[in-house]
Amino acid sequence: MSETFTSVSQEEAGLRDRVRLSFDLDVDICVIGAGLAGLSIALEAARLGASVAVLEGRHIGWNASGNQLGTVMPGFALPLTDLIERIGFEDARELWTLSKEGAELVRANATEANMPGIAPDNGVLEVSNVDAGDRLISRLQMLNEDFDTEVEGWQVDRVREVLRTDRYFHGVYYPRAFQVDGRKYVHGLAALARRAGARIFEDTPVVSIDHSGIRKRIVTPSARLRASHIVLAGNIHLGAPLRRLSETLLPVWRYAGITAPLGERVHEIIAFKGSVMDSDGVDHFRIVDGDRLMWESPETTWSARPQRFAGSVRRRIRTIFPDLGNVEVTETFGGATGQTVHGMPQIGQLRKGLWVASGFGRQGMNTSAMAGQMIARSILWGDERWKLFSPFELVWAGGATGRVAGQLVGIWGRASSAAAGSLARYRERAKVKDRQREARLAEANRAAGTGPRRPLAGVRPRPAAPPKPAAQGGQHRAEPAPHDGAASQ
């Protein structure tokens, strides 16, 4: 890969010259939050001709949106089978199609013409921690035939050909999925929105919101803003004015680390060029900067300094790829995503003129792009596809108790995944030993069939019959062989 995760482009550096809102302003749409979702909404609405202001309490992409691996693929945090069970096959297929469109929006944005230096790299491989061949076949059939998604099923041998570890079994390869430099993409998105006419104000927290009436009022520390529509895209960081809404999200922090250069050995052990993620959502990694490994650690519901997770990342790498040895993690980063109780994003209209776009969880790249286009077109064109998300209501996430429960569930899930993986690898080794034993027995049987006959072990040879006395007259006559061990009469 050609991208560099430690350098900052001149354009990105320019975007960090923050502009605060210091004067009263009237716009068509006010977006609160300058992450992936808020910037996607601002970009689409500005392209459609609306006047747009984005209010950000800190700076562009300061949280999870600017600190993620940049993997782009269709789907949601909620597994597809659970989505079908929840809303039915036809609606699930429509939502899946929207998620595919969101991924293509990211691809269209991340071109060299739009975002110099952010070239998409194709291919995402999802690997299983257990031997689940039967489930793999049914999933491939569903994705290919029912959801029109290009996927390939990889057998164990092929997975281990590109990933030298016994931790992974089967795989699902998404050739149309891709990855970008996620930490640069959000700044590129802001640049596109500004070029389209959107105005982005950083260091501008929202103090209060009055969403009654046709024109909504937003108060900031140094200015007031009026808008016909407000879009809440601040995720778990909406603050006191909208605490009840932010409390419908469970904050989940994920931290990642980037290793020191590993040389050619990393390509011998990890030959797959795209992103790799396991089916249990524990590990997510890819090679960057030619020979460095970027690895996302397990998640937690409590905030901490990213540097604290360097050891966790290093241990996970050593566990999965012991041939890499003890690697050095030279950089760590991370942020909090908001996860809903039901696992689907919050997209839609709360009341007339008040919209929400948050709760994207692990699938933030494609779903935030999809939400941006959908909400902008709903406001300006009357597009009502957002109603497909109506079954997924706002549900309180449980506060501090919910965070404790979420942490315990995460620990239990990782432990269950580890136990299931250990059992799968034990069964695999047992099968190998059985095949080796059968091969040795077959070889012994073949040898016994072509050489001198040897008695089977534990079976005593049958004694030979005693010789017959000679017949009278000195002549011998042949006797038939006895059938029951007694002499013939």
From TrEMBL:
Task: Cite the residue spans of the region called Disordered.
Answer: 423-489
Which InterPro entries does the UniProt record give? FAD-dep_OxRdtase, FAD/NAD-bd_sf
Keyword annotations for this protein?
Oxidoreductase
Question: Is Oxidoreductase among this UniProt entry's keywords?
Answer: yes
Can you give the residue ranges of the FAD dependent oxidoreductase domain?
A: 28-377
Show the Pfam families listed in the entry.
Answer: DAO
Query: EC number(s) in its UniProt entry?
Result: 1.-.-.-
Q: Name one GO molecular function term.
A: oxidoreductase activity
Q: Where is the composition biased (Low complexity)?
A: 444-462
Q: Where is the composition biased (Basic and acidic residues)?
A: 425-443
> Which top EC class is named for this enzyme in its record?
oxidoreductase
Per its record, how is this protein called by name? FAD-dependent oxidoreductase
Q: What is the source species?
A: Bradyrhizobium symbiodeficiens
Q: Recall the taxonomic lineage recorded for the source organism.
A: Bacteria, Pseudomonadati, Pseudomonadota, Alphaproteobacteria, Hyphomicrobiales
